[in-house]
Every structure is written in structure tokens, then in C-alpha cells.
Design goal:
Length: 160
Amino acid sequence: MHVHIDTKREDAAIRLREAVVECFAPVSSQIGARMNIRVEESTCQYRVVIVAVRGKRTIKVQSKHNNIKRALSMAKQKLFQKIRSSKPIDLLNETTEPRQQTEEIVAYKRIDMKPMSIEEAILQMKTFHHRAFMFLRADTQRMCLLYQRGQNQYVLLEAN
């Protein structure tokens, strides 16, 4: 894995390199590809460009965001998506025994539900970068689940 940081601030270069290594060190061995990662810092956003070489295939992805962690995460998601979509057809159609996948609960949390409006729930969801949020609706006192569908579209499920 080769990392190139393009910034004018030396202290930021060290911080950016650490963030890139933390995000992509497990990934490079997992996908079995040589990766060149370039991070460019401008005045208000970060640009991440990844070029991965797997055998004879070259995959290039890029992302931009004003938060470095988010830009790296988006680039990693795009990389995995391109790798999945670029698998040879004969490998995808190969009939193998289906793996037994066991469903398990990996976390159990108890939280105090505070009544809030739908607008507050959307703001909370954006703050935590979650795609779903459960809350107690202030005007009806009903439990609701809000989830994001698309860029600025939301769905509200309300219990009877």
C-alpha cells in the first residue's frame, strides 16, 4: 500500500497518513491488491483517490467530503462495490454449496427515549451519520423509526 498526502500543513499530513493507514491497512490484505492511495486537502474538503491493481485489472475510485473519515469511508465502500461488480461471470455463476450463515445479535443497548420532533430526529441522524434512527414522537407520544432512502429522502414508520 502506497500513500501520498498532498497538503500544505505538515501537522495535517501526519494526521491524514494515520487516518488512511487505520482505514485501509486491513483492506489491502483482504482484497489482495496493490493499492495507491492519494489524499488531497483543499481549503474546505478532502479528495481521496484509490488505484488498486488486482491481477490484470485496475480499479480506480475517488470520493470528496469535508470530513476526512467520511471521505475515506466513502472511498472504501466504492472500492468494495467495484470489486464485487468486477468479478468474472464464471466465478459468479459457479455453483457451490451455500454457506450456513447464522444470524446473531452483536450488540444490545438500552436507551432513554426522549420525545422529539421529526426534524430533530433527522438532525440527530445526520449528526451521528446513521441511516436509521428510533425515537419517541413528541406530538403523538408514539414510537417511530426514521430511515434514510436516497440522498435527502426519509421514511417514517410509526407504531399503532
